[in-house]
Amino acid sequence: MSDQRPMPRGDAMENLVIAQMRDDLRAERRRRRRFGGLSLPGWSILTSATAAVVAVVAITVSMLAAPTPSYAATPPMLQIEAAQAGRDDAAELLTDLARQLRTSGEPDAAPPGAPQQIVMQNWGLVTTVGAPGEKVPPPFVEPTEMTLTRYPDGSWSQVAVAGIPYDTQGDKVEDPDAPPPGTELWRIDQTAAERAYMFPDPLPEDADDLRRTMLDIGFADESSPNEWLSLTGGLLMERVLRPREEAAVLEVLAGVGLDLAGTTTDRLGREAYVLETPPSDVDLVDRILITPAGHIVALETVYVGHDRTDIPSPAVVSYMAFERRE
Q: Transmembrane: present as a keyword of the record (predicted)?
């Protein structure tokens, strides 16, 4: 699948207040995951704390308020060199990468007793809705750099700063009203008592034990590959994984029914395999990008439905690319 398109963003986090805790995932199977202010991609509803982080990568209702049906600017689609491969090849690749990680001898990224820091890039759509006849700038994509820090005592911080805005062609956009790149947009600081973590530390290094842990956390539908990637996204935003822990994650994902889409160069210039969920009734394809060394570097969601008039199909509706995990 060759992706070459550019996704909507809302103007403010307050439009995306979500406080659903992990028990909500057990309540009922949501047959269709929607966006555009109705509900967010599955991985963004795992916990209220995680939702606060992920809110900036989802579409808000601001785009739906626009009076014209013209397409919104969305991040360019990845260029994927398709593989003549499928589900069995995905499982074999994940198993091989996990074996490689287990025998690599790589040191832990975050030494015991040191803070764990995750730096990631996500994005949002900036849309201006003016009065009838008023000239407003076209929608554009605004990347956000997020730094998540987990301290040894269990406390937590999340800091978001503005990135360099760009249009559908990837060209820089000049907007005098946009915050300069590097400007702190918001931050959340939580004590250990305030921060609730989903996953144990250390994480199980055995794939069967990790799978049971993930099942205990809960799914709306544990047979859905989309939900397994959603929960994996929550884990990657919560912990800096040790090599054997990351290997266990890959081994779990080898059994959930992903397809091997091919290879790509990700949004931060890294070569990666692209594995994705098969077509389903949610109109969304979730993707995970993994380097040849076996490290997960990005997750993306692509809209592939046919009932939207404000964005094309296919179109990237969320992405998070991990710049550093240390």
A: yes
pLDDT in tens, 189-240: 999 999 999 999 899 999 999 999 999 998 878 899 999 999 999 999 999 9
The encoded tokens of residue 97 equal: 């990468």
| Region for 252 from its dihedrals, namely left if φ exceeds 0, alpha if ψ lies in -120 to 50, beta otherwise | alpha
Phi, psi of 322 (to 5 degrees): -85, 115
Sign of the alpha-carbon dihedral angle for 103, 105, 110, 111: positive
Nearest to residue 287, comparing CAs of 253, 313, 255? 253
Which residues have CB under 8 Å from 226's CB, separation 6+? 33, 42, 277, 280, 282, 284, 286
pLDDT given at position 72: 60
pLDDT in tens, 111-158: 888 999 999 999 855 555 567 777 766 666 778 999 999 999 999 999
Three-state secondary structure call for residue 260: strand
Structural domain boundaries in the chain:
13-325
Residue 58's alpha-carbon distances to 40, 54, 195, in angstroms, are 6, 7, 23
What is d(CA 144, CA 135) in angstroms, rounded to the nearest whole number?
A: 26
Q: Where are the alpha helices (DSSP H) in 84-196?
A: 87-102
